Amino acid sequence: MTDAIISILEQGFIYGIMALGVYISYSILDFPDLSVDGTFPLGTAICVALITIGVNPWLCLLAAFAGGCLAGIFTGVLNVHLKIKNLLCGILTMTALYSINYRITGSSNVFLDMTSETIFTQAGKLFPPLVSKLIVIAVITLIAKFLMDWYLRTKSGFLLRSVGDNEGLVTTLAQNAGTIKIVGLALSNGLVALAGAVNAQYTRQFSVAGGTGTVVMGLAAVIIGATVFRKIKFVRVTTGVLFGMMIYKACTYAALASGLQAMDTNLVITVLFIAALFVNRFVLERNQKGGLRRDA
Fold first, then answer.
1. Taking CA 216 as the corner, what is the angle to CA 278 and CA 74, rounded to the nearest 5 degrees?
2. Does the structure show a pLDDT above 90 at 216?
3. What Å distances lie between residue 171 and 60, 95, 175, 184, 208, CA to CA?
4. Is the pTM of this model over 0.90?
């Protein structure tokens, strides 16, 4: 039981970084960015390729983040400067990244040698073996979360939030809404690629199809976090997103533990996402009815 809880927490934190990125694109920018399904394995590919040639595993995380930012910039340029619809921009980037990821590694599947040094082999020398991975993953995730919270409180972060809510307001403040949108997409995809890099060192492998369902998973976590923790004032939205991913991973683990096969994972993801949407709609409708009663 302890191993199961630790595994849920580890994966919840890893994919929680990805969910923070999805939160930026979908909730803040109101941009349905499907390139996430390609950015996650991009981070994995960059990390595995660099570790294979002996690069420091911590630097690999930064390189993966930078690569994800470039992918986000590409998506933003397609939308802002070439005027391509946002949904199509994500699809184009995701499609291009499939080939790019393959080129980076030279194969559809790559496994790290057991002698390759990762952030987790380093942590194993400092912390108890049972929790060493969890400690490292939690620290990386919390650093990403607190930096994101800090950024959203800055002037640039305020403008980023304004672009999604009221793009005209940004224009009246003599700011370029398109540039801010590109910055937001860069940060979003950078976080997703960072999650992919951490996962690469956690699983010690790369798969060109490893990002399938990533965007659905991230959206489910965002919706669960927003629905469950919406009214808890002392819980930040980013914290709610991380908790949402923990709940999501716990539900996935429970479904597989009940007898479903690993091949049914995508089906479980779809069912959980539909359930999250249903619960979110139910809560919103109940809140609206409650507001109407109070007004009456």
1. 135
2. no
3. 38, 32, 5, 16, 40
4. yes
